[in-house]
Design goal:
single chain; 147 residues; alpha/beta; Rossmann fold; five-stranded parallel beta sheet; 6 helices; globular
Amino acid sequence: MKNILVAISLSQDAKQLFDQAVKIAKSTGGKLWIVHVSKADPEDLLLREAGPQYLYEKRAEDREKAKKFVEQEAKEITKNHDVPAEGLLIQGSITKTIKNMVNKYNINLVVAGHRKKNFLYDLLAANRKKDLVDELKIPLLSVPLQP
């Protein structure tokens, strides 16, 4: 497993995912790609003007916090565990982003957390015509998240 994608949605759940991914990366000599996917802002100026400005400012603030978080966690993993890691914040749909990253970075394993019907459920149920796991043709490690 040379390239491991860790898909996070909430910072409080990230440590559980990082723990599993670091174990695998250490045993295989792999690199971690930590990704948080956020909603994209409307590109059309007219669409943007339709909503209150504070919503866009709040979304931008949340994105900046998420970006700092993934970048900082990647640095700490590299420093504390001697595992190469890179943190990325990407705007768009979760399913498309993961597919694109798998291809772009030659990902061998995707690590994602799950609770009853949350991130992982949404990830797999979002595309009913084709199963994301089958489309990726790589393993998906589903980590049960503890409260």
